[in-house]
Amino acid sequence: MDVPFLLAILAAALVLYMTQVVRIEVTSLGVICALALFGILTPEEALSGFSSPATLTVAAMLVLSVGLERAGVVEFGARMLSRGKLGGLRGLLFVLAIPTVLFSAFMNNTPVVALMIPVALALARRREIAPSRVLIPISYFSILGGTCTLLGTSTNILVDALYRKEGGPGFGVFDFAPMGLCFLAIGGVYVLVMGPRLLPSRAALSELLAVQAPGRFVTEVVLRAGSKYVGKPLDKVFPSDRDVTVLEVVRDEQPIIAPPGELELREDDVLYVESTAGTLGNLIADPDIERGTAVADDDRVPLHALLAGELAGNQNEALEALERKNASDSDTEKTTRVELHMAEAVLTPNSRFKGRRVRELGLSRNYGVQVLALRRLGRQHQYNLRDLRLQSGDVLLVQGEAPALRRIHEEGDILLVEGVERQMTFPQKAPLALGILMGVVLLASVGLAPIVLLALAGVALMIATRCLDVRDAVRAIEPEVILLLAGTIPLGLAIQRLGLADRAAETLIAAVGGANPYLLIGVIYLLTSVTTELLSNNATAVLLTPVVLGVAAQLGVDPKPLLIAVAFGASASFSTPIGYQTNTLVLGPGGYRFTDYLRIGVPLNLILAIAATLLIPLLWPL
Questions:
Q1: Does domain 340-418 have CATH number 3.20.20.70?
Q2: Domain ranges for the chain
Q3: Shortest CA distance to 188 belongs to which of 107, 96, 250?
Q4: How many CA atoms lie within 13 A of 490 on its CB side?
Q5: Helix (H, G, I), strand (E, B), or coil: what is residue 556?
Q6: pTM for the full model?
Q7: Closest Cα to residue 103, out of 132, 157, 142?
Q8: Are the C-beta atoms of residues 49 and 485 closer than 8 Å to each other?
């Protein structure tokens, strides 16, 4: 009876991991409990994922990566390289690729991409290039760089640990380099050549209200009770010479997109208008127009200022008039234009805010930060914000004081990418932090001790030398990643224990045979790659590693080529925003849609699948 129970647990886990109707952490804990309660594994075996060398190594590498992040090493290197002259979009992509690849080869690539996003946005703005033209390439470069070493991605660490657990010799730090460098060369050329042709040109959400680049802006206004504009057609209220474009009218919670000119305005209509900063400043000073609102937890409150920063001419006058009016209305609304900033913040893949409504976040209550708008999969949402449940990759347009915005960024739930400059330094501890990581890499490469012990020793040194404090070290351990490993590792053990891995191996051999190594490698790689796009890289690696070990045992061949196919197939995830965390991270800041990943990612996946099929049997003969 154990097999039917295991199949039911496996099916339920796969559906929940793919749909994420509940948090990944909850699903993983459910898997652990189910395996033990149904007697499929002993309690000790069901909990073995927590003590697995793979889980501990991944956790340690996450901490080491944050240590380098806090030291400013990545951002310093990126900014140094960016000082050179840029030759258009391809030149910019090449410059961004260098630090991204180098650091991703030895660090967890999620913090690398998180640090590269603001750098890329600043450089793109300087060249007047849309963010959507550069952010997907950064994610792809980080994925390709991570495949070059054992430490570059948690997938490689996981495959190595599972291989060693089954009695294999495992992989060295640079055993993945020959194939990784080939992938990097092929994928890098593809991104540089085809990226400019296939990537969309789409503005960042913050550009709608930010002051960094002068131009046209969008804000929300409301018709006051008794306004002289009530009952008049739209084209009479906003004639062409007024230079105001009404993008949308929300009436009784129903949006009217691109409203016709003959639409008669009503009391309490909400209008989303676009114009220059000066015109909008004058518009919200109109006594018949009420300022727009922002979401402050359970309530909507008036915007304190239309724009942030130093303004010029009539823009200053309009805001000063608005501030004088605020002072006469209520002391609680009094503010100055330099206190508040608009900023763009993306929800990180492991954020505790994921799945919660905007009004439940407590951003206003805890930080004094209000939410103005939200962008998801390229679509901007400005009404009914309070009840929207957040997803990974969502971008929030927020308003608050600069210290408050930096604080929510430092707590790790959202990544501040636009609107407030973060101080970039190169502290004294940076060389020490970099030296600790390089020491771990060098000692692991000569096999002085198991990588898990060296990584944990590196963490201890970072804390002991105060490169990283304990609080930041604890925050660096991402619960979603750790619990995913802790849940899927015993699931993989159960699959192997009950013979399901051997049955799957027999089915695979019967379908493709074992005589043609190219066909076998190609099928394993494609199976892994497709599963990763639907599930996740780590879960796919855990589930398929026992299967390919069974294939190798039944054919009597070296399992390394098959494991290499699984490792690279699970890491090379380009076609969806959910297959790899870095793809999710750039989703919001780039304003991407699901189809953008398909357009550029599917050809790259196919090209690399062909490369893997041809190169793996040559580099690691069966």
A1: no
A2: 2-203+431-619, 211-291+305-333, 340-418
A3: 96
A4: 28
A5: coil
A6: 0.71
A7: 142
A8: yes
